[in-house]
Amino acid sequence: TTVAAGDTCTIKVTFAPQTEGAKNATLSIPSNDPDTATATVTLTGNGVANDVVTPTPAPAPCQLYAVNDQGLNNSQFFTISLDGAFSTSKLGPLYKGCDIEAFAICPKNNKIYAASGDNVANNPDSVCSDHQGNGRKGHLYRVDGKTGELVSIGDTGFNEIEDLAFSADCKTLWAWAKGDGLITIDTTTGKGTLDTPAPKMPIEGLAYNNDNTVLYGAAQTDLWKYDPVAKTLKLACTNLPGETEALEMMPDGNLLLGTHRDKTLSLHLFNPNTCQVIIGADIPTSQFDDVEGIAWPIKACTK
User: pTM to 2 decimals?
Assistant: First the structure.
């Protein structure tokens, strides 16, 4: 627009920052009159966060929850009915590149939590990546018990979370961070805190016993017992039925476990006191052969 000498012009400037913080710019209005300098206007403002509506994930009804690993880092949640038929259903979409390795349900309110490993793909269109498209490694999520929707909570500060386990009072969320050891995680922020360093221990499955006195950890075919008060880790069994990646304590005191590339397409029941697999108690998983996490909603299934 050209403005004649002596005329005026109104210019509307829209301030639309893409990020938070102080912003500044310059508006220049050139002049072709040698006696009139170019007009320069300094623009300043502050970018503020947009109002974001965070969904409230539904708690878990009474069914067994699990997450299966497909390929390197694709994750599929699924459920198994507990009516004796053990019907298996996919829960939500296949989360491509999300590398969900850990799974737990709070025993007091049936809220489902999940966490990622370190093979998360970089994808700006994925819930498992940040706004710059960087994959969220070692990240804590909520999971909707009815739709399987993933809702981000925050980074743990650790690179790879192998499994999650709640204390019976739901006040402590334990996790195993590969290369670091046993940590606790704030379920509000996702921030993790190292509790017991064990950088060389290859724990992949975690589960609390029903008395809230022992935290079990699975490493390959070994079962370990951790005393959270004495902070001691002792070998309990050496004969788990395969490379165990998922662990959950059942109401009868036995451990339900999932193994890597399980050709039987089943979850197995294991007695941690006698170190024996419970024969005839397998739970079929249909097409899922690489279960990374198992979770049972205690409150929802307690009459």
Answer: 0.83
